[in-house]
Amino acid sequence: MQNENLKVLKSKANRLPKLPGVYIMKSKSGKIIYIGKAKQLKYRVTQYFGSGNNHTEKVRQMVLNVADFEYVICDSEFEALVLESSLIKQHQPKYNILLKDDKGYHYIKITNEKWRKIQFSHQMNDKATYIGPYYSSYVVKDTLDCVRSIFKLPDCSRNFDKYSKPCLNFHIGKCFAPCRGKTSLAEYNETVDSAISFIKSSDATKIIPELTAKMQKASDALEFEYAAKLRDRISAIKKLGEKQKVVMCSYDNQDVFASAFLGDIACVSVFNFRNGRLNDKNHYFVDSVFDKNELYGAFFEQYYSRGDNIPKRILLDSDFSDKDLICEWLGKISGKKVNFVIPRAGEQKKLVEMCLKNAGDNLTEKSKSSGKEMSALNELSKLLGLKAVPRIIESYDISHTSGDENVAGMIVFKDGQPLKRCYRRFKIKSFMGADDYRSMAEVMNRRLFEYEKGEDEAFTTIPDLILLDGGIGQVNAVMPVLNNHKIDIPVFGMVKDSKHKTRAIAANGGDITVKSNRQAFTLLNKIQEEVHRFAISYHRNLRSKKMIYSQLLDIEGIGEKKAKELLIYFKTIENIKNATQSELKTVKGISDINAKRIIEYFADK
Known about the structure:
The chain is of the alpha+beta class. The protein is 46% helix and 19% strand.
């Protein structure tokens, strides 16, 4: 069936014009799963539906899920780029490189209350004063740490008009404690103003002459305590200035990008320089990408898609094929000429090297946590005789109480780690009572039907391995289902010992002992415990709701509708028990007599 579909798609691709445009790949349900641009549509799209030998695994998976495609002819490759960028932003297709950037902007907030506070904020939502925006939280938090270190401003919510005992921050020298009642409002506001000047200044050391003059004036007026505070501020700013020289650059505004790779995972680091100093930095991890040419072409389209705060100068660690096209696009949306520069020597080269080291360090840190998992997956692959390392594993467990509230849980592990957004629950629908084999077969059948529909993210990818909580009986129950759907996936059971630990893997050739394979054993137990927890928690939740419902339904005059309204309003049975008659009457449909009967019912319990 799949081969027939590929022939149809290839035939359609062969009829495409040799013109620039955008192509849109769709699943069986009509959902957009990939958007790309091409200088020649025919040449680019036919590549997908020819021999898959040269495709990456990600492209192979995408092609398997393509049921049809559409295309839009454009006047130029530049026009195709603009349209592609707009469509990707709108549809967020699964198989495009997508930057997970849901954090939004960040700001430094100065409240407008009597004793002003300087705070971190995710958004501008009141009449306070804001400094920003910043793309990441790094500089905001770092700047606030510096401000509190230098100016010793409080970060609490106390009312400084009232005297109170100072907290630990005062005793360790991190706050001058206006709560003690020894600081005037004028002195406090002067400190806040100095802190704001420090935050806004491109060079922190520029405020030193002003502070030095104030220190001398205080000393002449014999205000030695205040002069000492100013002296400490000056000293702290000088130390900070020395630190900042490391990340200063001769160009006022520029962004620096560099990327590091580990297998098919890339990390892109970004340094944003504004007013000559490091203003922000961030890093992005991108999966299923193999070279910088592919990565940067997609990355810059999304990174700068907001269209604001684009500098004229962008430093890069390497060239990429769409560089001129992206430059033209950035110039169009920013209204100024934008250049990519790959520096060969000097300060600018050092900045790129620093950015590249940052990308490598972040990737190394990520790989430390994944190294053990990948080693365990390799060991598991050898143990089970798999053709490839199982990067995506699905596991299933059935849970019920003597057939009551019969449910199943599906969990997904990717690269040895839980992928919780793809966990799914199932209620067994095809029969009543207890039959784990039939339950497992039903769940697998429904899961594969969802794959064919191609709508739910959790079901659109076929796993590399399926693990069932149970023995060979469960395996034999699902194999006919897989065969009916013409899908070939390795399936094994996880056989438990008396301590509920996985002692062996059930296969058609007999049980495979796993305890001698320490890393695989640990991973299998982690999966088995997680799928059991997930399934049984769903079962217990349903049973708990059923028991609560049955209690409420025992009350005269309370039917399913009123019971549901009571639970929605009060959340728990305990809250209903403790509610007064007037509180119960506020619930939709609950009359005075209903409320009395509820109180009488629980009074007897």
